[in-house]
Amino acid sequence: MNEYNKxxxxxxxxxxxxxxxxxxxxxxxxxxxxxxxxxxxxxxxYAHMPDLxxxxxxxEQISEIVKLCNEEHIPITPRGAGSGLAGxxxxxxxxxxxxxxxxxxxxxxxxxxxxAVVEPGVVTNDLCRIVSExxxxxxxxxxxxxxxxxxxxxxxxxxxxxxxxxxxxxHHILGLExxxxxxxxxxxxxxxxxxxxxxxxxxxxxxxxxTLGIFTKIYVNLIPQPGKxxxxxxxxxxxxxxxxxxxxxxxxxxxxxxAIEFIDKESIEYTSKYTGMKLPYQDExxxxxxxxxxxxxxxxxxxxxxxxGVTLQKNGAKDVFIADNRTNSEKIWRMRRNWLESLKAIDxxxxxxxxxxxxxxxxxxxxxxxxxxxxxxxxxxxxGHAGDGNLHPAPLKPSKVSPEEWKxxxxxxxxxxxxxAAEMGGAISGEHGIGFIKKELLKQTKEKEYAxxxxxxxxxxxxxxxxxxxxx
Amino acid sequence: xxxxxxxxxxxxxxNVKIDENTGTMIRSxxxxxxxxxxxxxxxxxxxxxxxxxxxxxxxxxxxxxxxxYAIKEAISMGCDEGVLLTDRKYAGADTLATAYTLxxxxxxxxxxxxxxxxxxxxxxxxxxxxMVATLLEIPVLTYVNKIIEITKDDITVQRAIEGGNEIIRTxxxxxxxxxxxxxxxxxxxxxxxxxxxxSKIDIITxxxxxxxxxxxxxxxxxxxxxxxxxxxxxRQGEKIAVKTPQEAVAKINDFIKEKGVIS
Lengths: 472, 263
Prior knowledge:
The structure holds 2 protein chains of 2 kinds. Chain A has 17 helices and 18 strands. By secondary structure, chain A is an alpha+beta fold. In chain A, a hairpin with a 5-residue loop joins strand 8 (173-179) and strand 9. In chain B, helix 2 packs across helix 5 and helix 3 packs across helix 4 (128-136). The mean pLDDT of chain B is 90.
């Protein structure tokens, strides 16, 4: 099934004809092809070289290229910014990488319908910035917001810190234009917030990780921008105390935070070394919550943080620190945002797990991670989204383990944690996706559903040319 | 010990927008905060208070009524009380008029130390602190990155100078402007936030201060903004295609020789 044809000089010529510009193609250029061989998942050991990279500029070009590949049985790997964490954009069978980097136009910001229409290669942060200039807000907010593309966010149904209030990327997508594996261009949804017309194909494509088609146009939902934001940094004696606060925060204060993040003791130590910054009570506590609220004005914000702060203190917070201006907010988030970078400074290939459990089970899964850490004698700092139960355990390679051994060992460690999370009523991936690294785990934990997913894939991509080897 | 900290409210953005017609900054109340560099001044004052008894810190700002927020931010970090010099007549003040107005309030007060940030992130002049010291006829120590010792009569500090540091001692009272390296400003906690919220800021207008009208606001400001414009960034690039790295190096070599960078 996975015997694919190679990219021949004849095919290269045909692709040149389609894109009409040699600079949009990388071929027989090892150094530049290498930039498209990996993502942020882990080590060099995950990398695979593509035969050719093409950077189309229109949906028609993409459609033509896909048709050609479908006829010639050449695997296609669609690629966004390459910031994925599950290997979904690694061309594991070689073939052609279709990089969406040149499709980075913001087509329209429709302030009458509160919809932005964008191409997939738009950096999410740019979208946020541009709509905010019009007093609007894109509530999808992956932690990789400064680098990742909106297309990749949709393809992985990316999450981030604001899921508790706004849901993950899928909640903000109103429509998609998709080039199907046979080259046909279809449109699901659009500038409308309701649609009961048949199957919800839109949400079939969201989170499909490039296995069902390539997005060429994305309709993004916009909402009014909150006037004011406040961030709370809350130290707790231990994880249990921190997590116990998540539900009361909402039931007792009756306000929904826009983020509840948490960071464990090991993570604090690593990020503190990396950023040179010390958090209050750092030597006395094992966990922090970072809580964010949005409000219309400063008075509302003051009311919210007072109510929330009092609740937190009553429920065992060591203290409650408040940042209601940009400088202090930055200070609070610097630790959380630099978490992965600070681990990469120690181990450039640190893999990050992405398990999700019911929020109340966080202490239980954390205890299990601790057990695994002891069993394997591997440091596993954890940060995550306490508000939605999504955790990122990040095992650090012990110096005596070779990269090859580490690939196996780290997958085993993260696999164990993922299976445990699934057993607790959670899932193996909350926001990063499956890619090829977690496909066995998906099969293992969701056997019947996995088989149904595979049937869908077979119908839509019978020749299995669209991002093969991913998910299945 | 009596300490004063001078703070300024600045726009809370990296992207200050200037109205090219009027030459003034486009401000909005929602996006203001205490000048980040003033936080270091506040923090240093609070640290001194924490290690010496009977110390009172007064935060002083001159600006519109909304600058109360900046003062309250300073109080939430541990300062005791706040004073806001505000009057329509003060509008449009340059650094000299601002320093003069502040001085009229400060003179005669029994102060041992006056702290200020090295400069404000909006105007970027760094002049108000030293001007206040000059007008008050007290010593000024700028770019201070460490306070080494304070006694009843004098203070020893380390200040950043080009290529190193210098240690300097002077008598009190003194005005000190601090740089970022001096400390890590604290985050205010709930208790202090609530205390700041309840605190009453002393509002002083020119009715109280009675500063000569030709020395305040736009009238008292010799600085004239002649023109404000966004710098246009234009670069001329030339693309040279070569086949080998050797050829590329040779090309660059020729180019910098031609420009006289090397001979």
